[in-house]
Amino acid sequence: MNNFENEAELLVKLRLSINYPNCRSWHLGVETSNIINFKTVPANCKDYVEDYLITSQQYRYDSKTVCKEAYFYAKGLALRNDTYNVWIFDLDDTLLSNVPFYAKHGYGTEKHDPEAFRKWLEVGEAPGLPETLHLYNNIQELGIEPILLTERFQEFEEVTLKNLKDAGFPYWRHILFRPTGSNMKTANFKSKERKKLEKSGHTIIGNIGDQYADLTKDNPGRRTFKLPNPLYYEP
Amino acid sequence: MNNFENEAELLVKLRLSINYPNCRSWHLGVETSNIINFKTVPANCKDYVEDYLITSQQYRYDSKTVCKEAYFYAKGLALRNDTYNVWIFDLDDTLLSNVPFYAKHGYGTEKHDPEAFRKWLEVGEAPGLPETLHLYNNIQELGIEPILLTERFQEFEEVTLKNLKDAGFPYWRHILFRPTGSNMKTANFKSKERKKLEKSGHTIIGNIGDQYADLTKDNPGRRTFKLPNPLYYEP
């Protein structure tokens, strides 16, 4: 290792130890993709995140604004009828909420615990997000079909389908899971699936998710919509 | 005009008349590019914008977080020495602030007045933004040269150079203005100039601006950073 690499490594370590004194600024940085690749929410921002998600309900207002904007965009389009007009929905923290899980695990300030998260998924009781549920219903009235595209592994299919139906999401043109055990990154997996959809006669009118990994790379859709999420970063 | 187009037009009109009841949500929507193509700040959000920019200083905290993140990113890189390592800076509301102008014009709630704005530019007294000034100085210490890329017309070159120097920005490898009278869109103009730079031996390490038009299309740079701006939208 030369000196420069050594210095760079030290800086990364230093970086992780820095507190963000203004948690609202930290959060805006996350939502705008200025702050990326973080492993946990800064320890001093736990109360901010709880207030944002639960106490102040700002999370709900912010989600509603995004979903309304998405609906007005879709409503203003002249849709072609020689294609399958579809809308891509991410699943976790887009249709179904993992907030109850994170509320018990320090609101993102604790290191991610894959085993505990797996158990949470297996219970299949994640609540639906009401703002996205409105969008999901309203785009169907416009003649646009939902496609659910998730980084969840295929092995969770059964519990996920039941959870979705219980939460008010009974229909999809397709639901696409990641192959169990795949180590493909979310952004690459989703981009590949979207490309297949467009090659097979679908037009991706819109694409909504809570992570930039849902919305970037090739074939993102005619417009993308970013839901808020201050809890974690999906690379 | 067929019925569908008629309906779409009506919806656009309807859309413009909608208030965003939660101005913080409206602003987050703008910063995340969920809300685009708006002509003015919603009338009910004037106080929010004034508070954001002036009273609460949240604007300063948010800008500082972005600029710090940009600096840490740059500091962690191993720079090649067989290329010109450069950083692209937008000008208006990135290096120089037009907040004093907008403070006298309803904080973005009034229809844009090109004549009044022209007079403001001709005075050449826009203050420097201190957070970006830090970044501008610090990247030069790392061996990265600033390139200023602005949608301002060439005709404003003289007053702009003086304004920049007065505000603490004395150096640039290049400063690139839009040809006077050009109706090329900002995003296209900037993308074209960035492509020319990369073809002529420059590596765009980073790119910072307050509008998505500064940061999108081809050759955006290795990483882009979005400064906050609740005042206007540049298509």
Concise account of the structure shown:
The structure is a homodimer of 235-residue chains. Chain A has 235 residues and is an alpha/beta fold. In chain A, 43% of the residues lie in helices and 14% in strands.
Q: According to CATH, what is the class of chain A? A: Alpha Beta
CATH superfamily label of chain A: HAD superfamily/HAD-like
Please report the two chains with the greatest interface, counting residues with C-beta closer than 8 angstroms to the partner's C-beta: A-B, 34 and 35 residues
Question: Quick check: average pLDDT of chain A?
Answer: 94
Strand order of the largest sheet of chain A: 3-2-1-4-5
Name the helicity range of chain A: 40-55%
Low-confidence stretches of chain A: none
The SSE order of chain A reads HHHHEHHHEHEHEE
Task: Characterize the quaternary organization of these chains.
Answer: homodimer
Measured on Cα atoms, how large is the radius of gyration of chain A? 19 Å
> What's the number of domains of chain A?
1
Which topology of chain A does CATH recognise? Rossmann fold
Keywords (chains A, B): Glycoprotein, Signal, Storage protein
Function (chains A, B): May function as somatic storage protein during early seedling development.
GO molecular function (chains A, B): nutrient reservoir activity
Pfam families (chains A, B): Acid_phosphat_B
Report on this model:
Two copies of one chain form a homodimer. Chain A is α/β, with parallel strands linked by helices. Chain A has one domain (about 5-225): Rossmann fold (3-Layer(aba) Sandwich), CATH 3.40.50. The first copy, chain A, is built from nine helices and five strands. Chain A has helices at about 5-15, 25-30, 45-55, 60-75, 100-105, 115-125, 130-140, 155-165, 185-200, and strands at about 85-90, 145-155, 175-180, 200-210, 225. Chain A has a five-stranded parallel β-sheet with strand order 3-2-1-4-5, sandwiched between helices. In chain A, helix 8 (about 155-165) links the parallel strand 2 (about 145-155) and strand 3. The radius of gyration of chain A is 19 Å and the shape is globular.
